[in-house]
């Protein structure tokens, strides 16, 4: 069976796996973005706190994905729970780091001017600092999403959803008629999803980042 024949015969299953893969990454990125920005907001004013946040999330990223899933399975069981937990933890570093860097890079004179006209600290954060820090934060989200696209495939080890199941089925049956087709279909599917997500982030950047800031 050729690769194109395999795709035609397994189209429904591949589309379902692709949807689950994209949905898992998207939902985990929403959670990771909220947590990462909150951590950045809470720590960027302090040198040691910001460095601690970045170092901690960087340390999490050094844990091999299979090892982390293996540690999570006894605590959360198989399926969605360990997948979501692992992806959120892995997605934090680029967002936390870029949030801290972006917020620290805001021109202090703008913050002082806002303070001088009576803006509260919360108002300055929401109306001045976060909008100006948004470009690097968006870059962090973009990088984290590309990372999670690949890492999510490993979640099949914990019976997680997504195209990783196609890859694992192919790897576990190497030598069989469709093993290579399964690995290739899962891999290409992840690449296509990564490109689609990246294109969406480019569009979001054009819509949300003022042209002057984009340079």
From TrEMBL:
Whether Transmembrane helix counts among this entry's keywords is: yes
Name this protein carries in UniProt: ABC transporter permease
A GO CC term assigned to this protein in UniProt: plasma membrane
Keywords of the record: Membrane, Transmembrane, Transmembrane helix, Transport
Task: Give the transmembrane region(s).
Answer: 24-44, 51-73, 79-96, 137-159, 179-204
**Stored Pfam families:** BPD_transp_1
Task: Name the family the entry cites.
Answer: Belongs to the binding-protein-dependent transport system permease family.
Q: Which organism is it from?
A: Streptomyces telluris
Keyword Phosphoprotein applies: no
Q: Which GO terms describe its biological process?
A: glycine betaine transport; transmembrane transport
The record describes its membrane topology as: Multi-pass membrane protein
Residues folding into a coiled coil are none
Q: Which CDD domains match?
A: TM_PBP2
Q: Where is the ABC transmembrane type-1 domain?
A: 18-201
What is its subcellular localisation?
Cell membrane; Membrane
């Amino acid at each position: 069976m050729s690769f194109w024949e395999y795709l035609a015969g397994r189209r429904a299953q591949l589309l379902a796996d692709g949807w689950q893969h994209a949905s898992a990454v998207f939902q985990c990125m929403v959670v990771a973005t909220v947590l990462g920005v909150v951590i950045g907001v809470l720590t960027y004013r302090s040198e040691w706190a910001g460095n601690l946040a970045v170092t901690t999330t960087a340390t999490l990223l050094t844990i091999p994905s299979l090892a982390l899933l293996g540690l999570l399975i006894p605590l959360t069981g198989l399926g969605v729970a360990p997948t979501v937990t692992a992806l959120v933890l892995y997605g934090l570093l680029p967002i936390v780091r870029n949030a801290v860097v972006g917020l620290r890079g805001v021109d202090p004179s703008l913050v002082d001017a806002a303070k001088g006209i009576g803006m509260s600290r919360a108002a300055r954060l929401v109306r001045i600092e976060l909008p100006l820090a948004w470009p690097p934060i968006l870059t962090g989200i973009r990088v984290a999403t590309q990372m999670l696209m690949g890492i999510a495939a490993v979640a099949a080890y914990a019976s997680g959803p997504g195209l990783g199941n196609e890859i694992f089925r192919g790897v576990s049956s190497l030598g069989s008629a469709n093993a290579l087709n399964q690995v290739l279909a899962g891999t290409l599917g992840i690449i296509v999803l990564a490109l689609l997500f990246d294109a969406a982030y480019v569009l979001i950047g054009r819509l949300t980042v003022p042209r002057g800031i984009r340079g």
